């Protein structure tokens, strides 16, 4: 892979867009396969648009690849794996994808490896879900096993009376029911891991959710050093348990007694790590590429004392207009990121703002100010 | 220009490549017109390859543009300007380009505006060059008026005996002869300037040349605050004198008595400003796009105390191999940038390394270490 290695990315969302920009830094070539041509990678990447079961299109797309990686874990890999050239490697690998792309399997793997997790039940029927409610108590969080992210495919239920509607709304095929974890704080960290197991963790951050979706991140998390160490150790261990290659986002719960539980992982660059683009020596996107190419990992340290990230979420439907962008760009310390999505929808992630500052509160205020100015 | 404005970039070198990556952050669409298809923008941008006088290709390329900007100032704009849609604007403008793209005209404009400059003579013949030598003394720096950059088109002459060869080597048509300036240090700064004149300057940096070409940059320059203020004021004034829109690189000389002289300007992102990608809140590439789109300029402050940049220069001819990249990537604090040029040539800029650190010496050592590991 000397000269300019080629990484083929399956899926053309904002993670692919930011990977492609990172790739240009270190002389890596990227290409993106996407199902629709109005996504974030249009106009800024070497893009092929086709169906996930179009063997000819995928074969041509994958032919020059040294490594194949993913924009999101729900991609149907069946055809892609069948037509991938023998000289290319899928990273993260098929075993990792099998362990993480179904949330029930993911939780089973964690329990089997002895990772600290909250109480859960896998439920394949409304009947078993009712039993789970009796065992775990309310409120419960219900997650569709596959393709649930960003608040899609998640429901919290306050009582048994809500189970039937929620089960049906999540597809009626099965859910992972999670007992309520009385957390003090939600933490996350990104881990970059090479095929041989060499790994580096980013700082532990505090995450804030709204409507089951990441709203804001504060960097670093205001927790005692021993809590940060425990969270970092858990994240590194989780990356190992799932044999992740590339960058993996690890979401955790901090309990009142200082215990840290694993919530879930995503084997790819992650919303809670977007701040690394503006606040760390090496971004999560560059480190993902380095890791999947088995190149030395970059420095994950912060460039300054504090940072914060606030998402830009859609609140209407129609073509995106990005009104107020000028006012957002005028906020000092802030870096505005827009994903170039053609259409906005209520709840859709359209961009984010990272801000740096002398302390977390200042950074958060700057990021919130800039993000609030933009009506995508 | 609401939604996603389109910037068309004439020229597909590394500056265009880095502009395109910056554009993806703020939701700006870019397209690149280039003469050869093996340049830095292949695989990572929306690229059209054609001749500079191909009116049909340029017309199609420019049709969706809101703003047209330049990768390098030597682009022949004749055809592009003739076929540019009436709704698009060239930035920097034609007057700025006329003032700066010929070094003799550029120097005349500076003198006319009263900017402090060293002694020079415009020479159209070997005869007048000999006279310049007598007037200015030796050594002299000779610059071809057009298309001289990165050591191409520049010669220093130590005595009258070298004039004939140097004059011929520079094309034999005319040169700008510069008397030797006994500088203590070479300084530079980047200025971002909007059409209405609003401007922001980046920190003043110290630059180090090798073979008439930027070798390294230290950020910030180790000069007294009043010198930095004087250099910043001169740079802002120069951006105004040439009515620059976009980012402009301003090179200066610091004399022993604290006086700061203007050396030359380049009306575009500049090698001495590449460090801004890794060490400032807003990079010069993003601020160039903001400025040409007449959007608010981003924060030009440093994220940490110190940084340094060292160029990666070719020393052989052939396809680029980037040997030693792994060792370079392993240097903590360093960010490696490769431009994706297909071929390496002796003296060709193939990439650069920026490093951050607690002080300039540490940052410089890290950048130098990483850059020295790569044999492009």
| CATH architecture annotation of the largest domain in chain A | 2-Layer Sandwich
Q: Largest interface, counted with CB-CB under 8 A? A: A-B, 54 and 54 residues
Flag low-confidence runs of chain A: none
- Looking at CATH, the homologous superfamily of the largest domain in chain A is ATP-grasp fold, B domain
Radius of gyration of chain A: 20 Å
Number of helices of chain A: 12
Query: What's the CATH class of the largest domain in chain A, please?
Result: Alpha Beta
Give a quick account of the main beta sheet of chain A: strands, pairing sense, barrel closure. 9 strands, antiparallel
SSE diagram, text form:
Two copies of one chain form a homodimer.
Chain A: E1 6-10, H1 14-25, E2 29-34, E3 47-49, H2 55-62, E4 67-70, H3 78-83, E5 89-90, H4 94-100, H5 103-112, E6 120-123, H6 126-136, E7 140-143, E8 154-157, H7 163-169, E9 175-179, E10 183-193, E11 199-201, E12 205-210, E13 213-219, H8 225-241, E14 246-255, E15 260-266, H9 276-279, H10 284-292, E16 306-313, E17 318-319, H11 325-329, E18 334-338, E19 343-344, E20 349-357, H12 360-373
Parallel strand pairs in A: 1-2, 1-4, 2-3, 4-5
Antiparallel strand pairs in A: 6-9, 7-8, 7-9, 10-11, 10-12, 10-14, 12-13, 13-16, 14-15, 16-20, 17-19, 18-20
Helix pairs in contact in A: 1-10
């Amino acid at each position: 892979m000397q000269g300019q290695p080629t990484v083929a990315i399956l899926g053309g969302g904002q993670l692919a867009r930011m990977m492609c920009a990172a790739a240009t830094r270190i002389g890596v070539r990227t290409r993106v396969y996407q199902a629709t041509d109005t996504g974030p990678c249009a106009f800024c990447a070497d893009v092929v648009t086709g169906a996930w079961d179009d063997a000819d299109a995928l074969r041509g797309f994958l032919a020059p690849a040294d490594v194949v990686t993913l924009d999101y874990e729900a991609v149907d890999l069946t055809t892609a794996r069948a037509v991938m050239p023998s000289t290319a490697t899928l990273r993260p690998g098929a075993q990792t994808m099998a362990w993480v792309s179904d949330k029930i399997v993911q939780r089973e793997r964690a329990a089997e490896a002895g990772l600290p997790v909250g109480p859960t039940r896998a439920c394949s029927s409304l009947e078993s879900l009712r039993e789970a409610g009796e065992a775990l108590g309310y409120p419960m969080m219900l997650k569709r096993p596959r393709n649930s992210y960003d608040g899609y495919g998640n429901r919290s239920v306050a009582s048994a009376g809500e189970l039937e509607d929620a089960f049906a709304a999540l597809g009626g095929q099965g859910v992972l029911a999670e007992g309520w974890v009385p957390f003090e704080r939600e933490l996350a960290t990104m881990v970059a891991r090479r095929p041989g197991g060499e790994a580096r963790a980013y700082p532990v951050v505090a995450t804030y959710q709204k409507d089951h979706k990441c709203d804001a991140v504060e960097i670093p998390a205001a927790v005692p050093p021993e809590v940060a160490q425990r969270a970092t150790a858990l994240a590194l261990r989780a990356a190992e348990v799932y044999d992740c290659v590339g960058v993996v986002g690890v979401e955790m719960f901090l309990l009142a007694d200082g215990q840290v539980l694993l919530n879930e992982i995503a084997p790819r660059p992650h919303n809670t790590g977007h701040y690394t683009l503006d606040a760390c020596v090496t971004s999560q996107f560059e480190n993902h590429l380095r890791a999947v190419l088995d190149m030395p990992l970059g420095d994950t340290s912060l460039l300054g004392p504090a940072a914060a990230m606030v998402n830009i979420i859609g609140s209407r439907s129609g073509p995106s207009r990005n009104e107020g962008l000028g006012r957002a760009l005028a906020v000092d310390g802030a870096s505005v990121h827009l994903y170039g999505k053609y259409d906005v929808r209520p709840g859709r992630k359209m961009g984010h703002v990272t801000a740096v500052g002398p302390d977390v509160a200042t950074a958060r205020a700057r990021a919130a100010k800039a993000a609030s100015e933009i009506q995508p």
